[in-house]
Design a protein that fits this description.
It contains 4 helices and 4 strands. It is α+β, with helices and mostly antiparallel strands. The protein has a 4-stranded antiparallel β-sheet, covered by helices on one side. A hairpin with a 5-residue loop joins strand 2 and strand 3. Helix 2 packs antiparallel against helix 3 and helix 3 runs antiparallel to helix 4. It is rod-shaped and about 120 Å long.
Amino acid sequence: MTDPSEEKSEETTDAVVEPVVDDPDVTPEPRSRTDWTRVAAYGLLPALALILAMAAGYLKYVDNSVRESATARAESVRAATEGTISLLSYTPDEVERQLNDARGLLTGEFLDSYTSLINQVVIPGAKQQQISATATVPKAGSVSADADEAVVLVFVNQAVTVGAAAPTSSASSVQVTLVKTGGKWLISEFTPV
């Protein structure tokens, strides 16, 4: 008679010792590998190219803005300088023509107020008292400028002669606001400061 405990141990031993038979139909699943060259070629490189293209576009935009601002500054300073000289310079014989020509450099409410001033005060006074005025602009600088509007600070020297008297000189500064209309800078405000 055999001991039942021995039978169990023999069975356990038999189970452990049994060889594992490989099934030819079952293949182990392949381990997934990341192909980094494909990731770089199809993911990273296009993303990098897009980022570089966006950066180039932004830099081009900034460059154009800076160039436009620089051009606006230069043009508006020139227009403010020439306009100031035209507005403040006249001779008694030519005062009407000179100041009416200067009106072509103005726009908006300032055009209306300047027209009223020259017609009611300056032209009659210059003719009656033989007043002549010569303005010069030793310095002018841009305060702000964009494509459509600019503010320029203008330093003005003006010599005024009344009749045969000696000329009197004065120095002042004016803040000139200009707007670009039809490709031309026109003075819209002329404020002494």
